[in-house]
Batch of 2 targets.
Target 1
Amino acid sequence: QGSELSGWAMGRWTYEGIDLNHNFADLNTALWDAEDNDLVPHEFPNHYIPIPEYYTFANATVAPETRAVIDWMQRYPFVLSANLHGGELVVTYPFDMTRTYWKAQELTPTADDGVFRWLATVYATSNLAMASEERRLCHYDDFTRFGNIINGANWHTVPGSEWGAGAGGRGGGGWGPPDTPTPSCAGMNDFSYLHTNCFEITVELSCDKFPHASELPAEWENNRESLLLYMEQVHRGIKGVVRDRDTEQGIANAIISVDGINHDIRT
């Protein structure tokens, strides 16, 4: 079909008909409802938000790949992540879901918006394709006006879906048989931020979702320095060990709170 003529949906769904990128548990809605009711963080956590029970049902429309990735994230305390996409030249950062559920686009920043914008900027400014003065627009969005970064929800939302049967609700979660529970689903970036310590962005690597093999060396050169610089950002910020004052032993799962940032971190 040609590398740029396959369409955005080609290869997006698994054999079971599930869009893996939109298959993670929706934790945003629960957090925002709790915030609206002044329950955060004393009665409802602002981080390490638990996965809803309905999402864990054996017959819920959750792909085995998604369950495996979540198990992996829970076993290793990642702090920085990026997922790589194609079809545009831009770096997006959370939240990816709009806070106003019926809006297709809405600026929806996290409590750590400054950090996320910095992380996205590090990648975008060192990416050869994004930084090139001769770059062309992939489609109709001119992301160069914003430094080639954008809040995900302000571009196009990754909607949650109200739990029900089949494929009803607000979208996302995949298509299942009529009696299959469709859990409320969201993207991986929001899930990583709300369920773990991990800060994650999405990198849209290229206008071309399916580059030819001959183009791959150039794509690697476009992204090599960006990937290295991005990984180096784990060394930014405050580091240390939380210890018991009397025994000097390290304290696991100590909660670190920063004034003015309504998102805690655990050791």
Note: The chain has seven helices and ten strands.
Target 2
Amino acid sequence: ERFGRKNILFSTMAVQTGFSFVQIFSTSWEMFTVLFLIVGMGQISNYVVAFILGTEILGKSVRILFSTLGVCIFFAIGYMLLPLFAYFIRDWRMLLLALTIPGLFCVPLWWIIPESPRWLISQGRYKEAEVIIRKAAKINGVPAPAVLFDTTEMQDSKPQQQQKAILLDLFRTRNIATITIMSLLLWFFTSVGYFGLSLSTPNWHGNAYINCFLSAVIEVPAYVIAWLLLRSLPRRYSLSGTLFLGGGVVLFIQLVPADLNILAVGLVMLGKFGITAAFSMLYVYNVELYPTLVRNMAVGATSMASRLGSILSPYFVYLGAYDRFLPYILMGSLTVLIGILTLFLPESYGNPLPESFEQMLKVK
């Protein structure tokens, strides 16, 4: 919120790529894990910021396309390439090198990707925002008006520009605090289901590399469905429906006879399909709920709750040592419960992105 979307995007990308390269030369397990922690900080940060930057630059119809078929499908492609790389490159240092080099291809994008005009306007940097908007209009063949920002609007927005967002702003009123707490819970439990099912793939029967690849492949149709639902249906019902599908199917796994392993794997994949579709919708939904001043912070905070869920998810998987169905019962139940909670969140479908807290407070 303070330094802009573009600067943080490329600095965190540099952290991820640079420390991934240093990690190759690790001389101990302790050194490897400390470096891996820093790489992870850079990776999730640039993922969130890239998402925010794209949604703030693009118009409403393209924004949904970017958020689902853009960001998420390219995430799935990277996910599919991972077991492919790992299958052919068995030395961990060479594998790390192969996964680090693509980060260098992002360097030329500095001269292509612009800063968010919405963020520039919120900071009172109208001239810079106007240059970006006029360039976009020229590229798209749209005639831009002679005056983009009038003096009255600029004066009216000065009080907002002087505000500095802090984390407590996400709890500044009872209404906003309720939305924030519900969003944190939603991200946390959805992440438990998503990563729990993703990390359980080695426990399936068959080749671990193929299982990991299949777990990635199922995400592609999930993102397509998410895009189609977001285009035409209210956010709450789309999100709740996919969570009910994912959680309900995972709960049914315990009823499958032990000799029908293929059916059990199929149900796990269908559960992953539902939870993955819901996960991709969460980003769009959160972006639409919060104003520009705290949007990046809000998505960052909810994403942090998601990381807490991903930290706990391996322990859900380990519960399979006591009862092979116990992880699925817990993950399925939590996913269904969070699907019910989603129905109590406000609806953002068809509304413009809020620019101020006043606009957000209108949503109950």
Note: The chain has 16 helices and no strands.
